[in-house]
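quick one, 380 residues, struct below
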Amino acid sequence: MKNNSFFLFGPRGTGKTSFIQQNFSQENAFWFNFLDDELYQRLSRHPHLFEQMILQNSGEKKWVVCDEIQRIPGLLNYVHKLIEEKKIKFALTGSSARKLKRGGANLLAGRAFLNHMHPLSASELGEDFRLDDVFRWGSLPTLYSLQSDQEKREYLRAYVSTYLRQEIKEEQIVRQIDPFLRFLEVAAQQNAKILNASKIGRDSLCDSKAVLRYFEILQDTLMGFYLEPFHTSVRKIQSAKAKFYFFDLGVKRALEGSLDTLVTPGTYAFGEAFEHFIILECVRLRDYARSDDRFYYLRTKDDVEIDLLIQRSPRELWAVEIKSSDRVDPVDISKREKLVKDLKVKRFIVVSRETRARREGSADILPWAQFLDELYPRDS
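---
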């Protein structure tokens, strides 16, 4: 990153600011923190001062840090100019792409590399990783400095409150907050399920158009992402129903109000959490590996489902079934073998909590950590 200007996008609390502070000191970079209300108000009213402040204060410093740049998207025009004319390098962080997209912001046409930051992955946590803890609390970095369950519970509740206040209410993204609050709880309950806007609307007392708009807000504010259904036709992929996954298991549980509930092995909730965890790990590791892999799911008219299809290249497709059990049932494999054969996949993998890799029919049954290491080796 130190050779080129860059964007660093990620949800609040994932460690963007800490990362920047560790790599850019006050001595070698000129800083703007747009969460500072006084600075935000001043540059919102008089954006031309941004360029003046940099030229007057940067001196010999080669870097300018702009934390939460999405709050004033128009400043990116000045960033573009200063990169071109003054060869100044910018480190730009953001926790929302919404204002940038809506305002037609100048994203610098490749002059700044794009990077993503997520909650901690299992490999980053290393010896601190505990599957049951991640299922219950998620993996936002701050949680690992907290000692008690009560502290973790209050942190996640405060996180949701801060998101609603700073990202939604203060930015006036929705006119009325109460319908959006009801939607959030229902959307969290429907995590990883095929979206049914009409049903979610009925349960949250919103119309289906509002539901679709609210999901768009969640995606734009980096609170989650879509997993599209697989089809060989790009047009049909875009028009069919997707699933939505929240970016962190703990935040999802805070939104649905289930932080007090334990996630017990063998339960339906445990299976859901395990699938959510594996999908999140794949997304995080793909981004960090700078891979172009594309992720989908598939459900046939006969309700045979493959949890994850990984398009590794135009001619290489992996089929991944996610099972939370510590012993995979051969029936689960046989139900999918014809579908997998028809898809002409290169690998059919069942990810599980089994402790040793083995072969069953056409499937490789892998411990979940081994699967992730094979998918995105740590030295890649």
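The mean pLDDT is 91.
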